[in-house]
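General statements about sequence and structure are easier to judge against a single worked case. When preparing material for the folding task, we compiled for one chain both its residues and its backbone structure tokens. The amino acid sequence and the backbone structure tokens for this protein are reproduced below:
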Amino acid sequence: MLALETAHGDLARIRPAAGPLPWRQRDPGFPGLLRAICGQMISNAAAAAIWGRLSALPGALTPAGLLLLDDAAFRTAGLSRPKMLHVRALAEACASGRLDLDAVALLPDGAAIAAIAAIPGLGPWSASIHLLFGLQRHDVFPPGDVALAAGLAHLRGMEVRPTPKALVAIAESWAPWRSLAARLLWHHWRHATGRGAE
């Protein structure tokens, strides 16, 4: 962390202002990807509430068990119709062996992201989130993440948030520690918006 902060003064300002960096982790298997789907396009608080209800459903944390759940159970958990389709697609891919998460964990970052993103409902963002928080990869930067763009714009005093393409280009200078840079930017944005460790 110190090497990244030493090389990039703007990132070095984050921890003194926001406090120690919380180290968030997720399950590296099926539950971790399931949670990534729950978190798509909604706030962290809403995602946590949905995840809490979904993970409490009997069998939901295994592909076979999840496939036994009906729409009513998913609605009770708070899943939208598209997310119901996505969690089922993930469960079917894992149950059939089309997505072998043990094998994915051994792949290089790009190949692992491509394998996960090939499943309906799991694009590059969800795949990158899984690699970052589930597999603890150190050089992954989620493309198109609105909070990362907002955090960087706030940190650097930019009038306009960088586009996803521009953000990914900026992140190149943080390699091979782009995951850490992302964690720092999320931490900064939570602090700046008063959301704490949400």
Summary: Residues 81-96 form the longest helix (16 residues). The mean pLDDT is 94. Residues 94 and 100 are 6 Å apart (CA to CA). The chain has two domains: 2-23+141-192, 30-123.
